Task: structure prediction
Amino acid sequence: MESVNHKNSNYYLDLEKQHGAKDYHPLPVVLAKGEGVYLWDVEGKKYYDFLSAYSAVNQGHCHPKIIDTLKNQASTLTLTSRAFHNNRLGEYMEYTTDYFGFESLLPMNTGAEGVETAIKITRKWGHTVKGIPEGQAQIVVCDNNFHGRTTTIISFSSDAGSKDHFGPHTGGFINIPYNDVEALDKVLQENPNIAGFLVEPIQGEAGVYTPDDDFIAKAKAVCKKHNVLLIADEIQTGIGRTGALLAVCGNCTCESNCEKQEATYVRPDLLILGKALSGGVYPVSAVLADRAIMDVIQPGQHGSTFGGNPLGVSVAKTALGVIREEKLTQNARKLGKIFRAKMTEYILGSSIVNLVRGRGLLNAILINDTEESKTAWNICLRLRDQGLLAKPTHGNIIRFAPPLVMTEEQLLDCVEIITSVLQEFEP
Ligand SMILES: *Cc1c(COP(=O)(O)O)cnc(C)c1O
Result:
């Protein structure tokens, strides 16, 4: 590697250990460079990235077009705040609302801020449009959800580590089991003060838990019946990852705005995007909705210093363009099918892997061991040794989510690495 950095991995691991908070438990690898589907560590060892920064890097590392936009805009104008207009935000809003088929967009930075924004819009809509008594608006959420790390969002998490001792928790949320339309119907029937249903179309952090194909469509119908907003958190599943532009698109691959969507498309009332919205180059998130919902927010009622900044929105516009130009959605769909077929084939003769699940290039395998076991972690260490980076989620589940710019040949190479490492762990 050309880097002038002669320090080794242990040096950086020690620095973080000495000076950093202990909020993460990373795989011991120190990365210094990325390009497309590849990463290099400080020793110059090359890896396939099979996490893509939790699906933020769908367009591949350091995509030249996105980086060009970043560089050009960085030397022109980076931040004005929303006290003034800037000449990049309007075009980004027009492009993105057209791309996803909504009337308006509210720009934020991180995913959690997008979720917080959607919660605020939903509550205000509940109180001022639906007529829920002030302060009584409820939002239904699913067990084992992951929507971010803010105080309000962890208040409705089912994960003790995320939630315990961080109270007092924010009220106004009702949990139901995931993939359970009857439970949703029941709770909406019983409670007239429900304003919204916040849901991940596939639960990524829970272990790529993939619901029935018609779950979201049925949930939408139930929400409509009870005048409740469907809020889709597509921060991880959106923007090509699942082999459709959005996971709520189902089987539709049009990659265009939503006029041409097939019957499988379910239009949420609020759509939350983040992560790959910027190709992993800059924190950019957004909430999209039609005017009747979005316009409950009036000047002074919500905002963010960095939200909608010219640097972030320029990067995001280019990053969305790349998804279309390079047909990454179709590629994710094609490669995902191959990946699951290969893994299914492997599982037939395996006692260490129980199943593979997912859609497009958002997949996971379930390791035949307890959540407390070290098996999945040890498999990821061996994958690292063999040049492929993945990380367990929930102890015994390994998520496989490479950048969508991967070629079929590279994918088959990766399948080879994965199956040969798994082979080492078979009894
Ligand atoms: C990552 C993620 C978030 C939070 O995004 P941050 O940018 O980390 O705040 C929210 N929802 C889902 C589904 C996610 O995967």
The mean pLDDT is 95. The CA atoms of residues 352 and 426 lie 6 Å apart.
